[in-house]
Amino acid sequence: MEKRKSLIWQVPFLLMLIVGTVLIIWQQRNMPYRKCEGPIFGTYYHVTYQSDKDMQNEITDALNRVDASLSPFNPNSIITKVNNNEDVMVDKLFADVFRIAQQVSKETQGAFDITVAPLVNLWGFGFKQEKEPSANAIDSILQFVGYEKVKLGGNDKVTKTDKRIQLDCSAVAKGYASDVVAAVLRQHDISNYMVEIGGEIVTKGVNESRLPWKIGVNKPSDDPMQQSQELQTILNVTDKAMATSGNYRNFYYRDGKKVAHTIDPKSGRPVQHSLLSATVLAPNCATADAYATSFMVMGMEKAKDVLSKHSELMAYFIFAGQDGNYEVWYSPSLRDKIVDN
Predict the structure, then answer these.
(1) In the chain, which residue ranges form alpha helices assigned H by DSSP?
(2) At what angle do helices 56-70 and 170-187 cross, to 10 degrees?
(3) Which pTM was predicted?
(4) 75-80, long-range: CB < 8 A, 24+ apart
(5) What is the pLDDT of residue 4?
(6) How far apart are CA 55 and CA 61, in angstroms?
(7) Which residue, among 101, 17, 87, 32, has the nearest Cα to 286 in the 3D structure?
(8) d(Cα 73, Cα 320) in Å, to the nearest integer?
(9) What distances in angstroms separate CA 243 from CA 71, 130, 148, 186, 203, one per listed residue?
(10) 179-210: per-residue pLDDT in tens?
(11) Are 275 and 315 in contact (CB under 8 A)?
(12) What pLDDT shows up at residue 223?
């Protein structure tokens, strides 16, 4: 008898639980998806998220915080002050990016290096020099390029072995900014979103069609204006971060020869290998961003070696085959995420 009474009391509770669950699902399905976009870091951001609240102000505030910390084009940013050798304490954003950069530099034996900007500018990607730099000019700059020559101390201050060292976190900052915006959305209990800044992407949950987020990987193109956007493949990147780096995205011609924007920090010269595009999936976008750049410096075989030591990373490479046609290689763990495979 007592067992029956216990069951009778449990029935209303179970009914309330079922009704409550149905109401939550119904409310979530009817909650609108919002979009916001705008210019930032010399590119554009696009954010799609499901929420009753307009998050434009919070998203803008987050992006402005990253800009105030890491933009070398902001004359008042922390990184600008570091580059000007001012006595400045860095903030958490700067410290996070600096530590990620240094870790990836170590894991890639210096292929990733946030001190490489003077070499990039020397070759003309900052200022488009008329002629190829001399060996002496390259060697003179190599004296103050190297991730080991800069450190972040316990006093939250950057120390350099040479005052001429210039930091540029562009190869990781957009990915990190995507992570920062995603964190803001999660803090407001938003569980379905896609954040994209200049091609660096963080996703969670499902899209408006209640399906996993799917992101295209562009085919390499010699079109510097990016008018050609033919897709090589489509990836399911739900609950992942994704970043792509490619020589076809940023280059110029000098004396009839294509010069890639990816500079090897060790040689001081543009890389010369068959890898055209590196797409990396990782737990966070800053890491994906940094490794994508690293792999473009290292080339495919060395990149594969790094991947074999990092199960948390997945990569999709597009490279030039011996016959000149595009070929692909991807991590075995990525196979299930290729939508059109």
Answers:
(1) 2-30, 56-70, 78-83, 92-107, 117-122, 135-142, 170-187, 285-298, 300-307
(2) 150
(3) 0.86
(4) 79/167, 79/168, 79/169
(5) 55
(6) 10
(7) 101
(8) 35
(9) 19, 31, 25, 20, 12
(10) 999 999 999 999 999 999 999 999 999 999 99
(11) no
(12) 54
